[in-house]
Task: inverse folding
């Protein structure tokens, strides 16, 4: 059993990480972004609840059109198909964001063998969420699901 101090320090760190990712943290100063050390990451990871809901916010619109995915809510998984499919099986909850109000931007492709081990077959999977638009003129409207 951990001491109260250990528990409190872990909770303090978890709160710090949550604030950092919410953008409300004031601890990041200068030009260099904050970065956790491996022991801090492992401690934080151990304290995370496995039943915590996954909340995604839509990608930010660029002024030039399209969406900005860097730094937005999303998941990138790389590696063998066995690894990617095992991780995806644990985050099926994200599929609920494919609905009449929002849609998922999904990418699954092979990794360029010229940038890695040419004997290895690897893949990359990305998922981000975006708001559904009203559609372009001339296109049929998105059918509403019937309940």
Result:
């Amino acid at each position: 059993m951990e001491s109260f101090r250990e528990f409190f320090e872990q909770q303090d760190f978890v709160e710090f990480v949550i604030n950092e990712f919410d953008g409300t943290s004031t601890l990041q100063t200068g030009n260099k972004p904050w970065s956790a050390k491996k022991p801090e990451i492992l401690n934080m990871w151990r304290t995370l609840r496995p039943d915590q809901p996954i909340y995604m916010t839509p990608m930010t619109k660029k002024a030039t059109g399209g969406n900005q995915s860097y730094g937005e809510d999303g998941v990138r998984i790389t590696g063998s198909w066995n690894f990617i499919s095992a991780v995806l099986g644990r985050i099926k909850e994200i599929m609920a964001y494919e609905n009449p109000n929002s849609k998922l931007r999904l990418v699954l492709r092979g990794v360029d063998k010229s940038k890695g081990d040419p004997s290895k077959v690897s893949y990359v999977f990305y998922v981000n969420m975006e708001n559904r638009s009203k559609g372009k003129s001339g296109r049929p409207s998105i059918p509403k699901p019937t309940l």
